[in-house]
């Protein structure tokens, strides 16, 4: 299982790295549209009880169409990011108030179904705009989340005692999150020095990087909420050893809009 996970991880890293650095932004947008919005919406529909057959196959089309229209007409980024911030504020409220066995989401399945479009499309649009600014920012964000996971794993294994969200993800600890934040704090400082031109900009870069790490945890927990509601261990089986696409991009879905908003803030010189 571990060997399979490592092999899949290496392949994913090569494919993602090639797409980030070798594709021009228009092609990156199309490839990521299918990978993130298309596959993500399909798994989301499957998890939230969409009927098998044609309904399940057609489920990704609304999100993909809206995403493509945003790209086609060059829709302003800022309103999309504001929508995402509001949506994730609601999701965080849902996470803090989640209780197993309430049957809320089973009795009202539209709640989780409707969030698919509102989560996947803004995250994808943010990544496309990040890539258009500089492909290195996409790499940085992905590496930031990866380092947060690695730091959280080792810190949690060594020092973890206090459960972060036992009803959603029993393996996560507060100590692990702190470990992830410590590792990514160092990484964000390095990148701030490299990519910004002033102390205020560097400070903002670090702050939004840390906020992105924090909310990436919420993204992970939210997909865990959906899986727990349907009794699934993974979002899918597409990626051997890793589960599904949503299992790999859950943190990115939450972090991408917020981090992109931070870069836009820096660009507009609002500090």
UniProtKB/TrEMBL annotation:
Q: Which residues cross the membrane?
A: 6-23, 28-45, 65-98, 110-131, 137-156, 177-196, 202-223
Q: Which reaction does it catalyse?
A: a 1,2-diacyl-sn-glycero-3-phosphate + CTP + H(+) = a CDP-1,2-diacyl-sn-glycerol + diphosphate
Q: Which EC number(s) does the record attach to this protein?
A: 2.7.7.41
Give the GO molecular function terms: phosphatidate cytidylyltransferase activity
Alphabetic keyword roster: Cell membrane, Lipid biosynthesis, Lipid metabolism, Membrane, Nucleotidyltransferase, Phospholipid biosynthesis, Phospholipid metabolism, Transferase, Transmembrane, Transmembrane helix
Q: Does the keyword Protein biosynthesis apply?
A: no
Q: Please, which domain of life does this record's source organism belong to?
A: Bacteria
Q: Which GO terms describe its biological process?
A: CDP-diacylglycerol biosynthetic process
Q: Its membrane topology, per UniProt? A: Multi-pass membrane protein
Subcellular location as annotated:
Cell membrane
Q: What does UniProt give as GO cellular component?
A: plasma membrane
Q: Where does this protein act, in terms of pathway? A: Phospholipid metabolism; CDP-diacylglycerol biosynthesis; CDP-diacylglycerol from sn-glycerol 3-phosphate: step 3/3; Lipid metabolism
Q: What Pfam families does the record tag this protein with?
A: CTP_transf_1
Q: Which family does it belong to?
A: Belongs to the CDS family.
Tell me what this protein is called: Phosphatidate cytidylyltransferase
Name the source organism. Answer: uncultured Thiotrichaceae bacterium
